[in-house]
Amino acid sequence: MGTFHSSDIPYVFGLPLIKSGYSQKDISLSREMMKIWAHFAENGKPPMVGETKWKPFQEKISAMILNIDDWGKTETERVEFCLKQWDYIYPHQVPMQQENSI
Question: What are phi and psi of 52, to 5 degrees?
Fold first, then answer.
């Protein structure tokens, strides 16, 4: 299925730069994500990623994927999956998260 919600947090805060065991690709991804988040915080909009402008999310259009092997890649498959599965995922995940936070 791919990565889960919030799996980006260690990369955004640079964990691969300070903890051993991460690959060079993980380190590069972390550096790029920190640049993207810092640019967004400073300017109020995401920067270009590779040669691609990061556009606002729209259901019928693709979403940008941060793929270390293809910066700025866009795709629709994951967006379509989430939209189709949302009615199932949401009721099952939210109660589990609330139970785990207690």
Answer: -110, 130
Output phi, psi for 61, to 5 deg. -120, 165
Q: How far is CA 9 from CA 1, 29, 76, in A?
A: 18, 12, 23
pLDDT higher for 94 or 44? Answer: 44
Could you tell me how far CA 76 lies from the centroid of its own chain? Answer: 14
Q: Are 59 and 79 in contact (CB under 8 A)?
A: yes
Residue 51 CA to its chain's centroid (Å)? 18
Radius of gyration of the chain (CA): 16
Q: Which of 25, 8, 1, 22 is nearest to 85 (CA)?
A: 1
- Give one word for 67, left, alpha or beta, with left for phi > 0 and alpha for psi -120 to 50: beta
Token pair of 1 as six digits: 């299925």
pLDDT tens-digit readout, 13-35: 999 999 999 999 999 989 988 99
CA distance linking residue 10 with residue 14, whole number of Å: 6
Three-state SS for 12?
helix
